[in-house]
Model the fold of this input.
Amino acid sequence: IGADISKESRSKVQSAYGINVTEDNKKAASESEVLVLSVKPQYYAETIKEIKDCVREDQLIITIAPGKTLKWLEEQFEKKVKIVRAMPNTPALVGEGMTAACANDAVTEEEYALKILRSFGKVEIVAENMIDAVVAVSGSAPAYVFMFIEAMADAAVSEGMPRKQAYEFAAQAVYGSAKMVLDTGKHPGELKDMVCSPAGTTIEAVRVLEEKGLRSAVIEAMKVCADKSRKM
Done:
């Protein structure tokens, strides 16, 4: 069962997944075994206020919102409920998500929650104080990677490659490189060195990336991302 205030969204979800979709949040909350709060962070307080009397102590609640701590969530429900705080990312849409999770001390169904989160990718249990770092390194990271792919494709197009082909080459290069990090267990720096032949093309490109501050730009972007997450 799902709930959404948008009639268009309800119709779309019902058509795509064949589930019961209602505009009544209380109905969804009262009839579910596992309740996923997937509204925007700014709507959490009012949504919880609306449904808190319908939530049962035996329900498992999975939240997806930066800045909303387990302590804050418990205070909003005004009673002890089972909460798993999760931070997934958009590659979940293609079964390659990366999710961080932490739970309050009322949760006993930890493996059940992890099984749900593993259905769309990988999941790791982290300390709650690491969630803001997770937002920066995986939650928001697809946007950085998409920008990188787009920039690489633009450069390939400027060299004469057709746009569609450029995106395929750039995206596959990123996908394959990420798989090498995960599958080999080698340090990214070691893998980079394997590509950089002496006086070759790659080391010349790396030199310019260093000159233009690629590393610093990424680090600073992630730091402001994590800081924004803390303040939400």
